[in-house]
Fold these 4 entries.
Entry 1:
Amino acid sequence: MSAELRETPLTNEHRSLGARLVPFAGWRMPVQYEGIKKEHEAVRTRAGLFDVSHMGEILVEGPQAVAEVDRLVTNDVSKLDVGSALYTVCCNEAGFILDDLIVYRLADEKVLVVCNASNRDKIVAHFADNLSLGTPWNDVSDAWAILALQGPRAVAIMKEIGAPPSVLELPSFHVTRARLAGVDLWTARTGYTGEDGFELFCASEDAVTLWRALLEAGQSYGLQPVGLGARDTLRLEARLTLYGNDITEETHPLEAGLG
């Protein structure tokens, strides 16, 4: 008997919007709503809203948080200012890729590591085995949801929902604390589409409120919910790497062009 699929806090929202739900990395996820081509075009010309709450998140804290994460990834976390982020990979002892990650420095002693849903258990186990004893860390994947607002009208939609200048003027690969639609969250100027946009990290219980508020705010801007199908075509068009397809545990970062 196959294992029961996990669901994000927004699964019922996807059903109500007529999404086609499919198994993905152990989750029941929307692959499309109106069609991959239409959703792809929406992100390239207007804006799209993605549920990426299946991704994994590890929070590392304490005086050694930056040094500890820096030791486990290939890019230089020690150079991150508070409020900035970087793309990197995590390797095994032989130097092959366990996963590609985005690392955010949320505070002096707080680092957020975001990994792929398919590798969450592997990366959590790797961090558990390799973080120094006494380093405070937590797998917050189940407690947090992530919504991605992507496209050339993303900034206008964020302004419509009441985002302050600190969010609207956030540079690429930076992150800040904010409150939108009554929801406390982290807002990052990151994404996986090749377009400008934001990724919003909130408590799981606030995901529906934020999702509905963004769709309402974006209605006049042509905002559409977008599934994993267009997410894949968008990232492919933008030449963004997909773990399990372009890179695996048999790939070295240098041969993947991730030196």
Entry 2:
Amino acid sequence: MQAPAAKRAQTARFGFVLGMLAALPALVYLRGFTVDDALIPARYAANIAHGWGYRFNPRGPSTDGVTPLAFPYLLAPFAGEGPLAALAAARGLGALAWLGAAGMLGAAIARIGGSSGRYAALLLVLFSAPLGAWAWGGLETGLVVALSTAAAVLPMQSARAPLTGALLGACAWLRPEMIAYSVWLGASRVRNAESRRGQWLTACLVAAPWVGAATVRWFVWGHPAPLAVLAKPSDIAHGAVYAIPAILFTGAPFAALGPWAWAKAPGWPRTLVLGAFVHLAVIVLAGGDWMVLARLVCPVLPPLAFATAHLLSTPATSRMAFIRLSIGCMALLYVFAARAPAAAHILRDRLALIDAARPVLAGADKVATIDVGWVGCATNSEIVDLAGATDADIAALPGGHTSKAVSGVFLTARRPDRLVFQLSPHPPGDKLAFARVTEARLFADPLIARTYEVTWRSPALLPIQYVVLSATPNTPP
């Protein structure tokens, strides 16, 4: 007969393997996912690797163009061959981190005990396109999801409180909007610490990374918030439009939403659920996000799956929990069917676009574009960031990141010799049309029309079309 400790270890190992197996299908299917913004920290990392410092343009000023401050330094050792090498490293780190965290989640669910129905909570991982995709996204999201998962599933032992605090502090450093979630969970672990010294240490580890990043930004660039807050302003209405569908279609928030059941649940799972909805409220206040597949919600999905497993483990709460879980899984399957096929090919399409544009942008001195990520991989030239994500002067202009009030006079004063504009997916007839406000305004500007002409159009097989406008021969360099 096995000793209780050996049996618990065997159960935890089984859960670890089960958690990893649950994460693998979406991870494999969506291995081709990425976003253009992931190439921004990748270019910073390449410049660091080449000795040019923390900057987007090798000869330009240092700018605060990466929300997780100093994240490019993590990628710099892999960036010697350029931004695409840094992107590959970021994608690999995110995927491996999430795979390990999914194993930790499975092991923690195994340790709960009770009904074996608790393992059904891993369906929220198995069917999750957001978790599978963003592990590969190339941004910090995969790491944040792994850190938040680890912080949620660590056993509630007083000696582990500082470690949990450090994990939560790292979440808030990488994603500043997670500070409320981290403080909420951290406060519970502070009370759980074994001594006054442990309480202070835990509290400091939760808050110090976020406060440190804000302080560095204040002293280096003159503002405590990331430049993206200025470059991509939003509002509560947009935040609500972002967060409410996320509650319904990411599965875990709906599955864990059992307010009467939580009266019978342990304290820590209740803390996780309340913390997740605090985080969702912060997302609403921050105005949401512009990226697909609920990126900002992903870090709280595995903790919510862990909380759901607690409800499934107890007969008193399992019946309604299974109903909510079934509805959540149906929503996840809908998202998978509707979004995953296109998301799975984004990296391939972006690499094809970069390869096609390289000869066209070769020899350019300065290129202006909204999509600085892929363009910054296609050329080593200086980039004029029309979205303001890496340019404080343009970020300060009125408008959102696709509608900055950049005039023809303003742009020509920067003297770019190439403009890269994204075409509208539904042009009127054979005419060139632009859905984004900045590009449409500039293309119609008489000064731009006199100064630039269309010299290239991206391959028709690619799902997103671009044109390059080059300075006409009589334009001064």
Entry 3:
Amino acid sequence: MISINTNTASTAAAYNLSNTNTNLQRSLSRLSSGSRIISSSDDAGGLAVSMKMGAAIRRTDATSSNVGNAISFLQTQDGVLKNMDKILNRLSELATLALDVTKTSDDTTLYDTEAQELVTALGDLEGETFNGIALLDGASLTVNTSENGAQSVAIDAADVSAISGITIELASGAAAAVTTITGAIEALATVRAANGSQQSRLSFAADMLAVNKQNLEAANSRIVDVDVASESSQLARFNILQQAGTAMLAQANQSTQSILRLLV
């Protein structure tokens, strides 16, 4: 049937061209943004999963930062403990020198003067803090090591009670001072060993967070990132279809001109 009012071929060509233009624009948007999901209608389920993964990635970053700060806390603490070790070793040396029978009482007094200054310095170190948090008050701190808070590691503001407040009198009791200082050095060695083990554990936790983040990013990429090679092929296809559709629409619109010949 030949009809003037209805041009079915033109309508079909226009419909196909509209779909091709929509697909072409979507392909261009994907390639220009690098994302496969431009709107929620592209992949509603994938978008929901990607949003949850994205939040997990950000929490993992924040947790990594917290763990890094905890490691810095322990490193700062160890720096203080290292200085305390130097002071105790010097006190031990002075106490031993004071035992020398060839030293006069004046000599021993001079040793004692330096020793008292070092004891004061030792006491000053006990008040050191990290961002306002005491380094050596013996309190226990909990560090979350997973983005969902399910895993944690306890670290300590080192307990130096066996060291704090020591008193020595080289002038009157060098032998007793040697015993006191030796005990303090042994206690400090235990504290530093605990500090090192906690640093090691947190370092492994930081490594695990880095691996988890990498895996989450890879999984999220498979959902949202565009496959450039595949999408480029689609873009070329839609470009050809657009050109063909435009030509066919023009051809369909011109086909009705043949009706005029019947009317002339």
Entry 4:
Amino acid sequence: MFIRHEVLEALKQGHPVVALESTIISHGMPYPQNVKTALMLEHIILKTGVVPATIGIIDGEIIVGMNPDQIEEFGKRKDIRKVSRRDLPVVVAQKEWGATTVAATMIIAEKAGIEVFVTGGIGGVHRNAGATFDISADLEEFAMTNVTVISSGAKAILDLALTLEYLETKGVTVLSYQSDEFASFYSRGSGLRIEDRIESADEAAAIIKNKRDLNLRGGILISNPVPQSEEMPKAEIDRAISQALVEAEEKGIKGKEVTPFLLKEIANITKGKSLETNIQLIKNNALLGAEVAIALATLNAKGK
């Protein structure tokens, strides 16, 4: 595993670092928006004084802190494999390029010593999972891996109620930032109440530190709703999702190809509005992630 010098130095000195995934570059958005968004997120985080670390796999080497040229190449290449826990040993052994999902990014971030990770939306329980058993490995990773993830809930194409039930069963701490409801990705509310609401990054940092001090394994999910000015009306996005799901079924799209297909279809149906909302919500998540990383670093420094 290669950790870029700036990231390694920050970790050694106890300075705040935020991890970013690479699936959003290779499978989440079209070129060139994917590269522009990835670099923009790094810039947003850097402006707060936090070190960003975009994670990906290049020729079998795990990179923690990809440089701009590597991010550009990730955005252009068409043959990059989507990598979760099961895929990591294969991609590394066969010296392939791999884009890390939430699960794989969590694994690598923990190994590197990075607590805070920012993404758009996590994977979860797919609709009709009772028949298909289609449940993202992201959820299982939350039960095992000590990383805090800031996201706008789970992707709206999923069954959000069952996703929360799964997380509860696995003992995953779920926090809702300045909202009483689980975020619904493109929209602020889902109608699903979250018991533990937090109002500040300091509150989040205290909970993270206490979970680690108690040696309770597993991740923490911070649900951060899209800004009100940027959200899409829930009825509008629900119609687009329903239409995209029908398209996926008619075309026989299965497994890990479902999510990127649906996101692309929804963007087409909404004439790009969903893509713009996606960009805005992850920008918002990057800002909160940086604040949480700073608060946690400050708290850890006081405890020494």
